[in-house]
Amino acid sequence: MSSRAEAAFFYLKYRDLLQKDQPELAGRALSEALARDPDPELYLEQATYYWRQKKYSKAVSTLLSGLDEFPGNRRLTLTLSRVFQDRDQDQKALEVLNHYVADHPRDTTGLRRLARLYLKMKEYDKAEAVVKNIPKADWTASEHYLMAQVYSALEKREQTVEHLEEATRLKPAFAKAWAELGYQHELAGDYVRAEKAYSRLLDLDAANKEIYIRLIELNLKLNSPKKGIELVKQGPAEQDFLIRALALFLQNEFTDQALRFFELFDAKITKSPEGKFYKALTFFRARKDMDYALQLLNEIEPGQEMYAQVLSLKSRLFWEKGNYKQAVAAAEHGQELFPEQERFWLLQSEILKSQDRPQEALAVLQQAVQRFEDSLRIHFQAGVQEYELGHRQKALELMERVLEIDPGHAPAMNFIGYSLVEKGQDLQRAFELISDALKKDPNNGYYLDSLAWYYYQRENFEKAWEVISSALAAEEKDPIIWEHYAEIARKLEKEAEARQGYQKAIELGAENKEELEQKLLGL
After folding, report:
1. What is the number of domains present in the chain?
2. Does residue 125 lie within any of the structural domains?
3. What CATH number does the domain containing 436 carry?
4. Based on the domain organization, do 412 and 466 belong to the same domain?
5. Do 454 and 501 fall within a single domain?
């Protein structure tokens, strides 16, 4: 036989041995075939064989040998770059592709691969430049999708949407592009166009429950619960899908429509403990039927995966009914069964605080602080409680701990900043903290009030007046903000506004009512 015929024989033997699950003998047969006929396809086959055997270095050396034999071979080159990428050796993959593209500057496939690699490496400007090297006449939906990915990473939404629309025009069945287009419209708050994009995506993949979930959520945001129910009916009649959809209706406060789930799908939903839990939650939210909700929760045995949620809801239902002893008992039971979950300490402290038992509420939080050393919620809530009881220094220490855990925690930044302003200490740090909090939430009335009071302390009353007006526009139900409004107005000799501020603070239940009344009399 000729060398090529012998190679064909050994290749067929290789395939046969693979089917018989004899990989070692198969590998030897393939090596024999490659020795007799060093063909690019055989190099690729051997590299693939080694890859499947997890012999990655041999896969690479095989591809390199193939490229020595057949320099510039597209399939060998692109496969080598893919192997490097899959092994997180992006720099080596980049060297391979850059070398190939330099020799083949009009190879669209090579350019596309290079652009995707730059995209993966977050070198967005280089990815954009590579795609633009492809002649516009050769652009397909893939090029437009690539550009959309680049512009999305650069947060250029208008250009992102433009390229996604072009990608879907050129390739109407481009599911990834439709999904991304819907997502971009969602980010922009254009729920109508997002809904249209996801509907097209559903036409392409009618069995995909994730698309149904996105469409249901969008229709609820568009205040179309009726359309949402129709989508639920069209979707897969599976329990997990129905429960996820039900949760969306509850989250968006469409409680009457949530009740419809139990008219339509009661048997499917309530066949599991999770379904019973959601039924209890629905009847509580929609009808305030706490007794029926508790009855359903009592049917769920301890040991179920979501039993912590059951105990938490039970505690809140007892609290709502005014059965404070049972509410606290349920929270304490949660602490025993789920000592790793902070929610039960927070819940117990809330219940005690609502009963005008602030010292006991604080004691619970102090225990929790020791148990959950890195919990933002526990430390923050404990700080608030200490502050309300007049323990200002302890409150500040707890809030400083919050910032140690999360330096970007805006409520803690504002708390510390305002506390420093009140004391007239370290005003520069106070300003920086309050400003950073406002960067995260520019329209927060409480943060704006803190900034106004900082300017007041600096005797920059005009600036304080400007900011306190913005604070009231954002939060008009807080007596302290109205009191600050009045104080700043007095400094600017705005008597009518000062009178209004004191009166509003008193009406809203200011704790220092008598002091404010005296100030009113003095105007």
Report:
1. 2
2. no
3. 1.25.40.10
4. yes
5. no
pLDDT at 305: 87
**Does a structural domain hold residue 506?**
yes
User: Which ranges of 105-156 would DSSP assign to H, the alpha helix?
Assistant: 108-120, 124-132, 141-153
In tens, the pLDDT along 186-201 reads 999 999 999 999 999 9
Nearest to 149 by CA among 192, 183, 172: 183
Identify whether residues 459 and 483 lie together within a single domain. Answer: no
Is the same domain home to 457 and 480? Answer: no
Contact 117, 94 (CB under 8 A): yes
Give the residue ranges of DSSP H helices in 155-190: 157-170, 175-187
Domain of residue 496, residue span: 476-523
The last residue of one of the domains, among 474, 490, 509, is 474
Task: Give alpha helix (H) positions in 20-156.
Answer: 23-36, 40-52, 56-69, 74-86, 90-103, 108-120, 124-132, 141-153
Cβ atoms 366, 383 nearer than 8 A: no
**Residue in 130, 67, 141, 143 with CA at minimum distance from that of residue 98:** 130
Residue 206: predicted pLDDT: 87
Q: What is the pLDDT of residues 114-158, one digit of tens each?
A: 999 999 999 999 999 999 999 999 899 999 999 999 999 999 999
**Burial annotation 122-156 (CB, 10 A radius, 16+ → b, else e):** ebbebbbebbeebeeeebebbbbbbbbbbbbeeee
Tell me: pLDDT of 182 over 80. yes
453 in the same domain as 422: yes
Do 467 and 481 lie in one domain? The reply is no
Pair 460, 491 in one domain: no
Asked if the structure places residue 89 within a domain, the reply is: no
* Per-residue pLDDT tens over the stretch 470-509: 999 999 999 999 999 999 999 999 999 999 999 999 999 9
Structure tokens at 318: 């007892």
pLDDT of 481: 96
Pairwise CA distance, residues 19 & 358, whole Å? 74
Q: What is the pLDDT of residue 520?
A: 87
Q: Do 469 and 480 reside in the same domain of the chain?
A: no
Query: What confidence category does residue 2 fall into, taking pLDDT thresholds of 50, 70 and 90?
Result: confident
Tell me the CB-side half-sphere exposure of residue 31, using CA atoms within 13 A: 10
Residue 465 lies inside a defined structural domain of this protein: yes
C-beta pairs of 406-412 under 8 Å, 24+ apart in sequence? 406/376, 408/436, 408/440, 409/376, 409/380, 410/436, 410/437, 410/440, 410/441, 410/444, 410/447, 411/380, 411/437, 412/380, 412/383
